[in-house]
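stuck on this one:
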Amino acid sequence: METTEQRNSRIANEDAGAHTAYAHAQDFFNGLATYHIEPQKCGWFWVYVNTPHGRTTTSAKTQEEAEAIIAEWKADTHFAGYPKTFFIKD
């Protein structure tokens, strides 16, 4: 059974995570994202999108796949669980 202290801690952690995701998405849609591809010794690639409030990471098997992931991220209308229209009114 969860104690009151444990519950309060869990809720605080969930709230912090939600605020971080919100800020990360807001940064992304406000044009503050940077992208990075990092080759690994085993032949695959880490692919990153960084904002002042977070980082999203995935992997790719080839450089071409990594570049396609970045192109897809740049065209996304949803990011970190938020739609672009939530931040940017067209």
In short: The longest strand covers residues 45-51. The domain at 4-79 is CATH 3.30.160 (Double Stranded RNA Binding Domain).
